[in-house]
Design brief:
The complex is a heterotrimer of chains A (486), B (125) and C (453). Chain A is of the alpha/beta class and 486 residues long. Chain A has two domains: 256 residues, Aspartate Aminotransferase, domain 2 (3-Layer(aba) Sandwich), CATH 3.40.640; 106 residues, Aspartate Aminotransferase, domain 1 (Alpha-Beta Complex). Chain A is 35% helix and 11% strand. Chain B contains four helices and nine strands. In chain B, the strands form two sheets. In chain B, strands 1-2-3-9-8-5 form a six-stranded antiparallel beta sheet. A three-stranded antiparallel beta sheet of chain B has the order 4-6-7. The chains are: A alpha/beta (486), B alpha+beta (125), C alpha/beta (453).
């Protein structure tokens, strides 16, 4: 991250504005086959408006742009619900092996035994960690895993001639993809309120769960970073009403080796490999969102599922599969990374990841609770939700605090989520950050809190040391300017 | 800050009676809650609307809200200029930021709305 | 020396119980627990039902990098890898030259390990490269706007059909029968509970005037260009939208969809600098008209200015998305597959105007050379007519599985089996990666295999 003012003078012209006719960054060999007849002229393109720049210019342009970013490799990211842990470099090296990066998705299983074996082993590992042994690695992101899970729930009810179940019960603290996925799956969203302690309001759930309930979608630990103490009762209530219980696995990092979702009564879950299993966020994808289910539901999984017969591995379609939810077999390169990570961590390493993530979050909470209100004043799991409501009374919003953190080289926490907390600042340190980094964050947060009293304007107008100050997002939305215009 | 000559709904819309036509917009309070308005989705003129029925959506950078008509009737005019310049809703909420003109089907509907004092006590809560 | 202590359960000499990815030492943990005010970690997780805590895991112990990398490399080595073998597979994923610049930029952790750019001040690199991506997609397809990327081609195609239904407020989707059936399968999975009817139509069939769109693939499954203008005209005459699932490489050579008035273009972005990687991660390309932008799914990056008047970029039109509109969002998608979009942006920048033309031309020349040579072999025929790009259908004198097995023995990965469409037929794909020697080897091998029928 370049934080000096010289960054402001960087040449940020777009590639098309740098283009000089005749320049090129690569050449291709001439054709080595006899010249073929070209199709009729009218089909051929006369102009292809793409940049013409030298190879150095390509490298320098993108390298300089990269320096305008925060990233895990360069900055602490206490971003709640996003699990911004270290992305081990070995993962990337394994995914780039020619035997993985170079294989074609239309090659039959017998040509790619190593790849299918890896997928099968990853299925087993994820099934073991979640206690839900039916696994499909096909979903390309958490939201797609969620959608697949809901299709499975609907297919299950339909298979029992119980198709009147068209309601998805979703807590008011849920992530936006939950209701969006439910709507795509044709389910009516009914909101379950949270009780004042941040837990699901069990009595409200009991009233809402009925013969129309297809599924209850619950994030565990919750988006408040709390474990539902009544979880067994909750899953029982939904099962008694004939519904299924879905776990949004966004926060699975807190449960590795600590508890299995299957043991808690969940029927379906997805896991975001780019959170819990250390695959890179990439500036917004690619993700990967495998879906895990009970044995009973396994026949509905999306295709493909890797199966094993002796030493032979095959990609196949489950008996009553919900079908194909994307082009090929899932985000294979991401699957290689997650597999590498799980094996590198091992049984005890995964458990220590969860333990240290929980300790780190509680440590931050304990050190900041004098300066900031807490969404819930009790031990948290892997993340803590602070509220800047006290600071708001002094004229500074959660947003301002988040922006001021950027000036200190620390990424903003997740803001204004969950929606049920006023001025929420959701902090998830993860297990890969050292105590020294946590102490620095705590000190900076206290410093900003003091600054709100001594010099509120500096906080209100932050950031001051980044390549740009606050952007006019209203203008961007009113008059969308979305591509290079010559 | 809310003009005395207008009527107000609980959903934060205002209504100004001009003969048999009622001009409709959102209140200053609503505009401030939304922040910078970036987009307004309005129906076609000529369609009918029920009192308190949804007639469109209004968006700021990070929120979207439904718009509910304070009166029912036939929509006779739509303010196309706020589609191009949605900032008018923030800048001139009770003037150029109007949204619809409705030929009211039953003037008795106005009795279900609040006066300025009533609306102010609602938003003071 | 006699040891009286059993060390069997402890790490062997030279290793450490401290994991390289977890910095907290026992002392750090003790200090933090004490600051929290508890004696033991277990006190922090009292909300978890006791009998479910600390379940048994069947997972092995941690594997150090040295041995783990060898293990995984051995798995990779068990695959039959294109490059070691001549490869003629296409059908949705294409083997192309990836210039060294793409991997060089992909090594930059500042891009790879960044989060979604919700804090634009700290993500100008990601945002500006995303804007370059959107610009490149618009330019290749000659379209007005593009989003920052979808999961992959088929999901982009499915989302386009749903978008057409929203725009037209109709619920019938007509899909041309020359499209890859996998596109239709994904569309089915995306629309199954949305009361949408999928009609499969032939190119010359009449369409009803209550359809939301005519969706088709061009080049189609058989590699053949469709009559994009004609189909678009028929869609518009029915008050419907025209959706084409395109191949970006083809438009280095052929007229872009925008020229024909297409409303939505989707495509698999993989051919633009993304390794095959057994099918993922790829990026879906999605472009449309400006007037439909509020119905566009996915993330969009826009240009704006900061408080000091400097140009900057930010995510925009976010009210369409799930984190704001929740169950009324245009899609549940919550990614732009940004890193793969970056690879596309660097690839397009590197190839540029001349490079993409050259790649398209090489693909055309080589595929047509292969087709003309194979067509001469007795017993083989080309069953589909039309101008083709990248690939062509080839009917064999023996079952495709037998032909491919024989080819594999000769070091050749054969074509994609489409015998479910046309008996004993495969798709042969040829790109700039296939040398004339490889093509001639394929021709000779097919002649031999055919002769053995």
């Amino acid at each position: 991250m370049t934080t000096s003012n010289t960054a402001n003078e960087l040449d940020r012209r777009l590639l098309m504005d740098r283009s000089v006719p005749g320049r090129t960054a690569v050449t291709l060999p001439p054709s080595d086959v006899p010249e073929q007849d070209m199709p009729q002229e009218s089909l051929l393109r006369d102009d292809l408006p793409l940049p013409e720049v030298s190879q150095l210019e390509v490298i320098r342009y993108f390298s300089l742009l990269s320096q305008l970013n925060f990233s895990i490799d360069t900055n602490f990211y206490p971003l709640g619900s996003c699990t911004m842990k270290y992305n081990p470099k070995l993962n990337d090296a394994m995914a780039s092996l020619p035997g993985f990066a170079g294989i074609h998705p239309n090659q039959p299983s017998d040509q790619v035994q190593g790849a299918v074996q890896l997928m099968h082993e990853l299925q087993e590992l994820l099934g073991d960690l979640t206690g839900l042994p039916g696994v499909s690695l096909a979903p390309l992101a958490g939201a797609q895993g969620e959608y697949a899970g809901l299709l499975i729930a609907r297919a299950y009810h339909a298979s029992r001639n119980d198709s009147a179940r068209t309601v998805a019960l979703i807590p008011d603290s849920a992530h936006g993809t939950n209701p969006a996925s439910a709507a795509m799956a044709g389910l009516e969203v009914v909101t379950v309120p949270s009780a004042s302690d941040g837990n699901v309001d069990v009595n409200a759930l009991r009233d809402l769960a009925d013969e129309r309930t297809a599924v209850f979608m619950l994030t565990l630990p919750s988006t408040l970073g709390l474990f539902e103490p009544s979880i067994l009762e909750i899953t029982q209530i939904v099962h008694d009403a004939g519904g299924l219980v879905y776990a949004d696995g966004a926060n699975l990092n807190a449960l590795l080796g600590i508890a299995k979702l299957g043991d808690l009564g969940f029927d379906i879950c997805h896991s975001n490999l780019h959170k819990t299993f250390s695959t890179p966020h990439g500036g917004g994808g690619p993700g990967s969102g495998p879906v895990m289910v009970t044995d009973e539901l396994a026949k509905f999984l999306p295709e493909p599922v890797a199966t094993r017969n002796g030493d032979s591995y095959t990609l196949s379609e489950p008996e009553s599969s919900i079908g194909k939810i994307n082009g090929f077999h899932g985000s294979f390169g991401i699957l290689v990374r997650a597999y590498t990570y799980i094996r590198a961590m091992g049984r005890d390493g995964l458990k220590s990841a969860a333990e240290n993530a929980i300790i780190n979050a509680n440590y931050i909470q304990s050190q900041l609770k004098d300066s900031f209100d807490l969404a819930a004043d009790r031990y948290c799991m892997h993340e803590t939700v602070l509220s800047a409501s006290r600071q708001k009374k002094r004229g500074v919003k959660g947003l301002d605090i988040a922006k001021r953190l950027l000036d200190h080289g620390i990424h903003a926490p997740t803001m204004y989520f969950p929606l049920i907390v006023d001025e929420a600042l959701m902090v998830e340190p993860t297990e890969t950050e050292s105590k020294e980094t946590l102490d620095h964050f705590i000190e900076v947060m206290r410093q900003i809190d003091d600054e709100i009293t001594s010099d509120p304007e500096t906080v209100q107008t932050a950031p001051h040391t980044l390549p740009v100050t606050r952007l006019d997002e209203a203008a961007a939305a009113r008059k969308p300017y979305l591509r290079w215009q010559g | 800050m809310n003009p005395e000559n207008l009527k107000y709904s609980k959903e934060h819309e205002w209504a100004r009676v001009e003969g048999s036509t009622v001009v409709v917009g959102i209140t200053q309070f609503a505009a401030e809650q939304l922040g910078d308005v970036v987009y307004v989705d309005l129906p076609e003129a000529g369609s009918d609307i029920e009192q308190f029925g949804k007639f469109g959506e209004i968006e700021s950078v990070k929120t979207v809200s439904d718009l509910f008509s304070p009166v029912g009737g036939k929509i006779v005019e739509v303010n196309d200029s706020v589609k191009d310049s949605p900032e008018k809703v923030n800048e001139d909420t009770y003037g150029e930021g109007w949204l619809l003109k409705i030929e009211i089907s039953d003037p008795g509907q106005l009795d279900a709305l609040m006066d300025a004092a009533g609306y102010e006590s609602l938003t003071a809560e | 020396m006699v040891h009286t202590v059993d060390h069997s359960a402890e790490p062997t000499s030279g290793s450490s119980s401290q994991h390289p990815y977890v910095p907290a030492t026992d002392d750090d943990r003790a200090e933090m627990l004490s600051a929290i005010g508890v004696d033991r970690f277990e006190e922090l997780i009292q909300d978890i039902p006791e009998h479910t805590r600390f379940p048994q895991l069947g997972i092995a112990e941690a594997a150090p990098e040295l041995s783990l990398s060898a293990d995984i490399a051995a798995m990779a080595a068990r695959n039959v890898t294109p490059g070691d073998y001549a490869c003629f597979l296409g059908a949705g994923a294409y083997r192309h030259f990836i210039p060294s610049t793409v991997n060089a930029i992909l090594q930059r952790g500042e891009f790879v390990t960044a989060y979604t750019p919700y804090q634009p001040e700290a993500a100008q690199g990601t945002l500006q490269t995303g804007f370059e991506f959107q610009s490149a997609i618009c330019q290749i397809f000659d379209m007005e706007v593009a989003n920052a990327g979808m999961y992959d081609g088929p999901t982009a195609f499915a989302e386009a059909a749903l978008m057409a239904c929203r725009i037209t407020r109709r619920n019938k989707v007509a899909v041309l029968d020359t499209a890859d059936s996998r596109l239709v399968e994904v569309l089915r999975a995306y629309s199954v509970h949305q009361n949408i009817e999928i009609q499969t139509i032939t190119p010359d069939a009449a369409v009803s005037d209550d359809i939301a769109c005519i969706a088709f693939q061009s080049p189609n499954l058989y590699g053949v260009l469709e009559d994009v203008g004609g189909l678009t005209g028929r869609a518009h005459a029915a008050g419907a939208l025209s959706i084409v699932h395109a191949n970006p490489t083809a438009h280095g050579l052929f007229e872009p969809p925008g020229k024909y008035g297409v409303d939505i273009v989707t495509a698999e972005g993989q051919p633009l600098g993304v390794p095959l990687s057994f099918g993922g991660a790829y990026v879906g390309l999605f472009a449309c008209r400006q007037e439909h932008i509020r119905q566009l799914p996915g993330r969009i990056i826009g240009r704006t200015t900061d408080t000091e008047g400097r140009t900057g970029y930010a995510l925009t039109l976010q009210t369409r998305e799930q984190h704001i509109r929740r169950e009324r969002a245009t899609s549940n998608i919550c990614t732009s597959t940004q890193l793969i979009g970056l690879m596309v942006a660097v690839y397009v920048a590197t190839l540029g105007k001349q490079g993409l033309k050259d790649v398209a031309n090489l693909c055309y020349q080589k595929a047509h050379y292969a087709a003309s040579e194979i067509a001469e072999i007795p017993g083989f025929s080309l069953p589909v007519e039309g101008t083709f790009f990248h690939e062509f259908a080839l009917t064999c004198p023996r079952p495709v599985s037998e032909v491919n097995a024989a080819l594999l023995e000769k070091g050749i990965i054969g074509g994609y089996d489409i015998s479910d469409r046309i008996p004993d037929t495969m798709l042969i794909c040829v790109t700039e990666m296939n040398s004339r020697a490889e093509i001639d080897k394929l021709v000779a091998a097919l002649a031999e295999i055919g002769g053995a029928a």
